[in-house]
What does this fold into?
Amino acid sequence: QITTLINHKDKPKRSDKTLQAIQRVGQAVNLAVGRFVTVGEAIANENHELKEEMSVACVEARRAGETIAQLTDVASLDHPESDSHITIFTDKTGVVKAARLLLSSVTKVLVLADRIVIKQIITSRNKVLATMEQLEKVSSFQEFVQIFSQFGNEMVEFAHLTGDRQNDLKDEKKKARMAASRAVLEKCTMMLLTASKTCLRHPDCESARINKDGVFHRMRLALEQVIEIVTDSRPNGENEMAPISIYSGIKEFKNKVEGLRENLYFLSKENLSTMLEVILEHTEDFTDSAYTSHEHREHILELSKQAKMELEQLVSVWMQAQNQKTKDLMEDLEVAILKTCQCMNELKREVHSAATSLAADLLKYHTDHMVLKALKITGVEGNLEAVAEYTCKLSEQKEQLVEMCRLLRHVSGTEPLEITCIHAEDTFQVTGPQIISAAETLALHPSSKIAKENLEVFCEAWESQLSDMSLLLREINDVFEGRRGEKRVYLSLPRPGKHNANLKALKPVKLDTEEQAKIAKLGLELHLLTSDVDSETEKWEDQENEIVQHGQGMSSMAYSMYLFTRGEGLLKTTQDLFHQAEIFATEGTKLASALHAFSDQVHEDDKPLLLLESEKLISVCKQLQITAKASAQGKSATFTKVDACILKTRNVMTLLCQLLPLCFKLLRKNKAGNGCLKPAPPWKEDRIRTGTNAHTPERRAETFGIKSLENHVTNMTFLESK
It folds into this structure.
């Protein structure tokens, strides 16, 4: 909008229509600044150490916005009443100055707000670390349960903050590192619980202590990495030195070689030779590996030798061409460039084949998890000799999988996938010894239920990582073959084609900038409604209430749909949005069922109103489901469908904003004695008996953000207290 004002054409006369349009833009800028500054001022009031700086920046922004509105106000311009064409701004310089001040002050507010977010994450991390230290030192179950409950809440807060930060990161490499660290923390939360309980139950067991110490150490490393990413720093001022993969080395080498077509003098032959030497050194990871087949090893060695010869020929022609640019020499140079690049492509293809075929074979071989099963059986039998035998086999398996991850990193093709390979390697390196210590503990205490449960948890982590490797291998192959349309599935992101067979043939698309602008107002309304719903759910004392659970889940999904309208968040394509809308509507239908059950507990006079609102909710959810499932071919039809889905989601959220306070009021009314609550129906009993029904895998798969970790921690705390 500011660019529109600054770049208007300097015509001496303008029509009323044009001036009114400019006035509307000026007013829109001022209103947007007003809303922005209101948020900034609220942040300032909550953070006293930056209040003064933030307040000054907000005042400057508000003043600049008001100045722009005044300078674009048609009523303030002097022009004859009889003249249909009026003079353009009398002070364009003033608009430029105000725009500069506005952009400067808005940037200042954003930087200050960012500092506050970073401080919140660091503070949250420090709280988690302090509680972890307490957990390490506890000596009684009662004390452990109490502190672990606090730890769980702090971990959920940290997960929320870091999840938002991960979503905001623009650097895909940092985003992948953050995702890896957060995955470690989420998995280690359960490990910490069982490992600590095992240590408390068997305080003199050395293997149990080693097992627990390993979990705490890994969590601390993950917490530290999150802070490094957030603050963009390394301990002791070290620079991050990521190892260069063969893929990235070949890509850079080819770019330099092909650059000789444009400029014969932009690099030296020594630089090119050094680059090839580095690539060939990395191929030794394959040729020296005990797991590379003889055939692949021979081919890699042959291609390495050929690459050296092709480069020698290229350098020879290149040096001649520098001295004398004849047509024949330039043709020879082109042939040498093509042959060198072709050789490097063949080398890339060979190492890719070696790494992926090894990975496929290993993953297939280890799918039965025979070693893990044997460790569980021999551990329960207390057979120390057999456990020792199988731990040796697990160590061998670990070495194979670690080597597989190292080779896959060389051929992953993108930095985020490289980081995922490094994360997988670390996971196998750490989890292997932890399984061994957990198995040894069980063998020493074969009748211990908690030792058995602890081994199960670490085995599940190993199995989960093997399963993730199959997905990673598929992505690496997709990148190699040029199929990069869909990014990896994060958290509970619905997979295209999974929920609706009719959508399989449709090509996932993103909204362009113009479409995002059209739908921005609707998205903002949705955002405001999610805030209202969150405020209502926070009022409930019983956060485990099924109505609250469904309300929070719907709010979380609606927020992800709002982020989609901005081109952000986990929903990347229109298909993702449509799937999310379907799941959102299903969640609304489940809420309606919970409301029906709740109506049996309220006073007879209040029941009709609650049932009426419940029926309205079912109706709007059905409308949304029909819209989300309808086919749409072509860009225009797809955008219309997106618009309709967001609009109907907004309608559901509007109704939810009315329903939640009504239910809260009826609940309080009944508790106050205006009508005693009737005995809870079976659905309530079932929820309590099973921990909470809302936390089944199906439920978790339908919500976004860190809901899974919240439920995970809540369940653990609930079961521990029992």
Summary: Residues 78-88, 485-507, 674-708, 715-722 have pLDDT under 50 and may be disordered. Strands lie at 13-15, 85-87. DSSP finds 23 helices and two strands in the chain.
